[in-house]
Specification:
The protein has 202 residues and is mainly alpha-helical. It contains 12 helices and no strands.
């Protein structure tokens, strides 16, 4: 599409100066950002009926589009506000169980009470060393087999099966490759399995 000529542009500026009240409107300025609309305006000024009709149709579509976008923006805005208000009401009426007060006097919440009970409960100490892992075995055959493992095998088995570390995490701790960890772990597991009586009978 060819751009406006200098003569067309000058005629358009003259029209805007003569009709400042109309051309100062934002919707009109946006409409004439399309140079094709300026060309159609000039043909309408020259008295061509087809140009006048096309200009009216194009501006009507443009104006509808502007109004529709404003309507959508307004609808989204007020729907968002309504939803926020609804969420606030829901949060105030339906508190999470942990956030509910234990009594009408407001002496602490249910969550605080449960956490207090948890702190009073005796918790088994966390296994962090192979010796602790070895002491936790209830099966004598398994305990003896674990004791027969090399220190490295015991450490890797403890980190893997007691503390649930992945091979790559253990490898980073010890300073070896994940493949080496996998090989050592599988060898230790094989020795532990062979130590079980049902395995020896097969």
């Amino acid at each position: 599409m060819a751009s406006l000529t200098s003569a067309q542009r000058e005629r358009f500026y003259e029209y805007c100066n003569e009709n400042r009240s109309v051309c100062s409107e934002q919707v009109v300025q946006n409409f004439f950002k399309d140079e094709q609309n300026i060309k159609i305006l000039l043909t309408a000024i020259d008295g061509e009926p087809a140009g006048q009709k096309e200009l009216e149709d194009r501006f009507r579509r443009h104006y509808f589009r502007v109004r529709f976008i404003k309507y959508l923006a307004s609808t989204i805005k007020y729907c968002t506000i309504d939803q926020m208000r609804l969420n606030q009401k829901t949060d105030s009426r339906n508190q999470l169980i942990f956030d509910r007060p234990c009594s009408e006097e407001g002496d602490g919440t249910v969550g605080e009470m449960l956490l207090g009970f948890q702190n009073l409960t005796n918790v088994e100490p966390l296994i962090t060393e192979p010796s602790q892992f070895h002491a936790s075995f209830l099966n004598d055959h398994l305990a003896n087999a674990f004791a027969a493992l090399s220190p490295k095998q015991q450490l890797i088995a403890t980190l893997c099966y007691a503390l649930c570390y992945q091979d790559n995490e253990i490898a980073e701790m010890i300073g070896v490759s994940p493949q080496a960890i996998c090989k050592t772990r599988n060898l230790a597991l094989q020795k532990l399995r062979l130590a079980m009586p049902e395995r020896r009978c097969n």
